[in-house]
Amino acid sequence: MINYARQDQDSSTAGPVEEHIAPAPRVSVQAFCETVETAAAVQAASEDRRLDKAHLKIQMGGMAAAVEAYRAAPTPNVILLEADGRGDLLASLEQLASVCDAGTRVVVIGHVNDVVLYRELVRRGISDYVIAPVAPLDVVRTICSLFSVPEAKAVGRVIAIVGAKGGVGASTVAHNVAWAIARDLALDSVVADLDLAFGTAGLDYNQDPAQGIADAVFSPDRIDTAFVDRLLSKCTDHLSLLAAPATLERVYDFGADAFDAIFDTLRTTMPCIVLDVPHQWSGWTKRALVNADDILIVAAPDLANLRNSKNMYDMLKAARPNDRAPLYCLNQVGMPKRPEIGVGEFAKAIESQPVASIPFDPQTFGAAANNGQMIAEIAASHRATEMFLQIAQRLTGRGEAKRPRSSLLSPLLAKLRSK
C-alpha cells in the first residue's frame, strides 16, 4: 500500500472563479503528464499567485516516467500523475509505491470517470483523483487543498485597496470599508497601514499605538503569531489596527517580499486583512496587490485617474488570470466647478462598472477625519455609509449581518434605561 497522506474529497467539481483558495506553503511539486493539454494547464497553474511559494516542475511521460525518475532520486512533497487509461493504473501505482518516499502525496489526473476506481485509489492512499481535462484553477485548487486542514477556519482573506492617483481618498475608503466589514458584517478584521512614512490609519481610528507594522517589517526573524498580536491596536470588538509609524526617521525601502511573513502570519489569525496600499509603484506594492485575494482601486473622476485605473486594472487582471477581476469605485464625485469624466466613460474604458460612486462631501468627511471617526459614526444615514457597506459585501462575498429587530417601544425603553 502506498504511504501517502489520504484525503477523501473529490476536487473534480469546479467551483466559481472567485472562490477563496488558501495559498500553498513552500513545497516541491512534480508533474508527469501524458498530454500536451494537461501539461499546459499545469504550467499555467504554476504561475498562479497561490502557488507562488511552491516549486513546480513538469515532465512528460506519465506514470512510467515517474517510476523511472524516482528509482535513484527522492520524491517531492507532491506528485501529479496523468493516467491516460491505456495501462493498468493500479499495477503502475504499486510500482511507484516501491520507489516512493513516505509522506509524499500523490494526485492522479485520470481520463476514466469511474467511482469504483476512485474509491479504490482512495483506499490505497491516493490523495485525490481529478478527471481530465483539467483547467489551471483545478490544479491550483487540488494542490492547495492538500495542505489545508478541513477542521480549521479558512485562512484569512486579504483585501488590497489602492488609489489610482495620490489624493483620491483611497485610505479613507479603505478605513471605512474595513469598519463596515467589522461592524456590519461582524467579521474579525485588521487594517494594515502600509504607508509607513505618511499613513493616516492611526489618525482616522483615533489610535496612537507605541508599536506597529514597522516593528514587524524591520524584525523579520521575530515574526510569529504572538509577536504580531502584540503589535495590533484594538479599535473595536471586531477591528484591529497594524499602524504605520508615520515618521520620517527612517527611509522605508523594502525588497519585494518584505511583507510576506507579516501577511502570512495575519492570515492564520484574522479572517479578513485589509491592506491600505500607498500610491507608489515598487516591487513590494505590486506584489501585495497581485497576491491579494481581492482588490479595490479608488479613483477620482478625471483623466489621469481614468488612465491609471485602466493600466492598473489591465495589469492586475492579466497577472491574476484565475482570480476575480479587480473592483474599482469612484470617489469625490460631484466636486463643484470641476469638470468630471462620467461613470459611463469610466465603465466603457475599463470595461467594467464601478461598485460605487461616492459623493464629494468635504463637510462630513472633513469632520470625520478631524475627529478620528468613521462616516458611519457621525452620519449613519449618509449615502456614503451605505456605499461602504455595499463595497464591503462585494469584497468579502458576505451579506449584511442580521441585527435584532427593534419594536415600537424601543425608544421609550432606551429613555427609561438612561434614567
Description:
The protein has 419 residues and is of the alpha/beta class. The chain folds into two domains: 28-145, Response regulator (Rossmann fold, 3-Layer(aba) Sandwich), CATH 3.40.50.2300; 157-396, P-loop containing nucleotide triphosphate hydrolases (Rossmann fold), CATH 3.40.50.300. The chain is built from 17 helices and 13 strands. The strands form two sheets. It has an eight-stranded mixed beta sheet, sandwiched between helices. Strands 2-1-3-4-5 form a five-stranded parallel beta sheet, sandwiched between helices. α1 crosses α5, α2 runs parallel beside α3 (89-99) and α6 (170-183) packs across α16. The longest helix is centred in the C-terminal third of the chain and has 17 residues, at 303-319. It is elongated, with a radius of gyration of 25 Å. Mean pLDDT is 87; it is low at 1-17 and 402-408.
The largest sheet has its strands arranged as 8-9-7-10-6-11-12-13
Euclidean distance between termini CA atoms: 74 Å
What is the CATH superfamily classification of the largest domain? P-loop containing nucleotide triphosphate hydrolases
Q: Mean pLDDT, rounded to whole units?
A: 87
What is the gyration radius calculated from CA atoms? 25 Å
Top-tier CATH class of the largest domain: Alpha Beta
The major pleated sheet works out as:
8 strands, mixed
What name does the CATH topology of the largest domain carry? Answer: Rossmann fold
Strand content bin: 15-25%
Ranges with pLDDT <50 over ≥5 residues? 1-17, 402-408
Report the order of strands and helices: EHEHEHEHEHEHEHHHEEHEHEHEHEHHHH
Number of helices: 17
| Total of domains | 2
Helix content: 25-40%
